[in-house]
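Translate structure to sequence.
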């Protein structure tokens, strides 16, 4: 073969290899473009189907404001003392309802987010909730209150740390709002610090803000009916709270209708 023919054949093979390489490069670019389009489409679809499509910053702001709690407003959360590490949250099913849920929350350090520990069905005032309670209106007071004293007809459960007044005077007489028996209601009680003197027995009759507001608002054993203003939970739940609540953790109760 002449030198001219060999040179022509070599140039032909070089052109073919260059063309094949360009074709492969084009295919790779096309595949990458299709993958990018598919990825963008998938991301758009994921955003479309998210249950909460607010910016992540807005979601984090709401979570921080509520500090891990639900069923309450930011205003109520702000009223919970920063140093408190134990919280009993009572959320009523409605402003006029006597049915509620009581939940125990804890947090590892002051100001940290709350973590749900346990919850129980609860009963509250027969006429629901009031932010301006008056004696005899059959409502439970709405707000945030400290929990500092306890007592009951029965001896304190082992491990109880709250000051506990064991007395035969904790006897509920008569009948409840719906005619139910009140027997055993005061086997265990924890005083809610509404219109009372802290550091005293739950039986203390003094009403610092006047008798018109009423008082002796307690957490006590549920008697299968609405209360005149107290919050009732099961006997087992009351015993559990007494063995968990620690004065050193500055326990409080936040109570009111859902969203209060």
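Result:
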């Amino acid at each position: 073969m002449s030198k001219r023919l060999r040179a022509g054949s070599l140039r032909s093979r070089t052109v073919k290899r260059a063309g094949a390489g360009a074709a492969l490069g084009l295919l790779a670019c096309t595949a990458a473009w299709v993958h990018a389009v598919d990825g963008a489409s998938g991301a758009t679809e994921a955003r479309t189907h998210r249950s909460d499509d607010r910016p992540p910053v807005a979601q984090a702001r709401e979570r921080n404001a509520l500090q891990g709690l639900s069923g309450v407003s930011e205003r109520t959360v702000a009223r919970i003392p920063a140093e408190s590490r134990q919280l009993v949250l009572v959320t009523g099913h409605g402003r006029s309802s006597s049915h509620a849920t009581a939940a125990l929350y804890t947090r590892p350090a002051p100001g940290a987010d709350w973590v749900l520990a346990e919850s129980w069905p609860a009963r509250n005032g027969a006429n629901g909730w009031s932010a301006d309670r008056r004696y005899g209106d059959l409502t439970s007071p709405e707000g945030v209150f400290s929990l500092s004293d306890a007592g009951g007809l029965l001896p304190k459960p082992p491990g109880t740390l709250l000051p506990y007044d064991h007395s035969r005077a904790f006897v509920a007489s008569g009948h409840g709002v719906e005619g139910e028996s009140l027997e055993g209601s005061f086997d265990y009680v924890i005083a809610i610090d509404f219109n009372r003197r802290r550091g005293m027995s739950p039986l203390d009759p003094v009403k610092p803000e006047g008798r018109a507001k009423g008082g002796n608002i307690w957490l006590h054993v549920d008697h299968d009916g609405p209360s005149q203003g107290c919050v009732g939970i099961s006997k087992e739940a009351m015993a559990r709270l007494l063995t968990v609540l620690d004065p050193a953790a500055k326990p409080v109760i936040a109570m009111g209708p859902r969203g209060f």
